[in-house]
Structure formats: structure tokens, C-alpha cells
Amino acid sequence: EKMGFLSNKISIDEVKPGDHIYSWRQAYVYAHHGIYVGDGQVNHFTRGDGQETGTGTFLDKMIVSSSPNHGDSPCPNCGDRSKLGGVISSCLDCFLAGGDLYLFEYSVSPAIFLAKPRGGICTIAPSDPPEEVTYRANFLLRNGFGVYNVFKNNCEDFAIYCKTGLLVANTDVGRSGQAASMVAAASVVLSSPLRFVAGFGGLAVAGYGMYCVSRLVSDIGMRWDVSKVPVERLIADMDDMVGTDCQPEEI
């Protein structure tokens, strides 16, 4: 299956430097994303073993470390990286962790975007050229991408930033389509318009419509609160925030 309806499975020999790739984890509950930088290596943003996701929900137990644990037989190329967090580089096999390889799509039409009911597999936003993408991914490998958070700053956020250079001003939810889908689904459940529709069929149609609209307006290619931020400025701003936080309070 290549460029299928629900996702975009590709073979390993098809992947190219600058591609945003992903692999499903935990029985297709969520996907782990990264940027293929060439020579069999993938740069990806991970939640290290033992770190909190910051949600305070069941997701803290469900979303485990993104770094594969090989037990007593570490990867001959990567070694044991199961406890590492932040932006790391892994071989393609370690990144996939036994899963299949999928290609994240850019510049899709709104119709195609809505036709794919699951978030985190495509965006309306266009991608920058591959050399810019790999430059950002390697720069962030050396300098980090902040603190991992499943809703505000996750592996998909990292990969989308590398591909587009776009940052969201409102950080309640980042660029991640997976996070946007979870928020959209939760909103539908909490605001089910039972008093406005007749019967289960009407409720299902209305709920799915709300879900689709919420996903669409949250997409990085549709949002108004985004701006292009050079990766050097991103890191400088992060350093400034850390420096400010460390300043002693005036008495």
C-alpha cells in the first residue's frame, strides 16, 4: 500500500533526505515522527524514559519513550538509546522499531485533508526544499528543541517545523495533527449536541462534522497565528527564555 487512503506507506528504498517520515506505535494508537537526513539516519524528537508527558492523563502511561529498547542486545549502529530524550539521531531500523515506514504528505488540498479522517499524516502547508529541511533537523540535533510535551511540543511538531519553519504563537496546542485530532475528538464528546439533533444518526453526522472542521482550522496550513522563524532565532529565543528564568528576583 503506497499513498493509501488512511496513510502513506512507502518502502525503505523510496525514502529521500528531507522526508518527514513516521511509524505507528502501540497498536496504531499514535505515530512517532522524524526527518530522514540521509545515510540511513533519522533525526527525531523523543521523550526520554522516565520523563513526564505533561498531560496528567492516561496518555502518560500509554505514550512511552520513543527510543527503542533492545534489551541486552543494543543496536550495533546506535547503541543503547532507550533512556535518551530530546533530539537524537538513530538509524532507520531503530526509528521504525519494528514498524512500517510512512511518508507524511505536504501541500494536500483541503478535500484530501478532510478525506483522511485521522490526524498526523498530512497537512495543507507546503514543505521547504529538502536542503533547508535537513539543515534545520541537523541544527536542532546539536541545539535541542525545548522540553517535550505531548500536546505543545512533540515529535510531529519537531518534524513539521523542520519541513516548514513555521511556529505557532498560541502554544496551547502546537503544530501536531495528532494532538489536534485528540483535542477535536474530546471537544466533540464534551459538547455533543444531543438537544439539537434527532436520533443517533444525526448525532453521528453532526459530531463528525465538528471533528472535521476542528481538525481543518487547527492545521498548520490554515492557522492565522503562525509565522516563519529561522532555526537560529528559535534557539536564541529558547536560550533567552532559559536565561531569564535563571535570573534572581529583585528584592
Explain what you see.
The chain is an alpha+beta fold and 251 residues long. 35% of the residues lie in helices and 14% in strands. It contains eight helices and seven strands, in the order E-E-E-H-E-H-E-H-H-H-E-H-H-E-H. A five-stranded antiparallel beta sheet has the order 4-3-2-1-5. A hairpin with a 4-residue loop joins strand 1 and strand 2. The longest helix has 20 residues. It comes from Thlaspi arvense (Field penny-cress). Pfam families: LRAT (PF04970). InterPro entries: LRAT_dom. This is LRAT domain-containing protein.
> For the largest beta sheet, what order do the strands appear in spatially?
4-3-2-1-5
Strand content: 5-15%
Unreliable residue runs = 50-54, 184-190, 194-203
Terminal-residue CA separation: 64 Å
Whole-angstrom Rg: 19 Å
Domain LRAT: 22-171
Pfam family, one: LRAT
Organism: Thlaspi arvense
Protein name: LRAT domain-containing protein
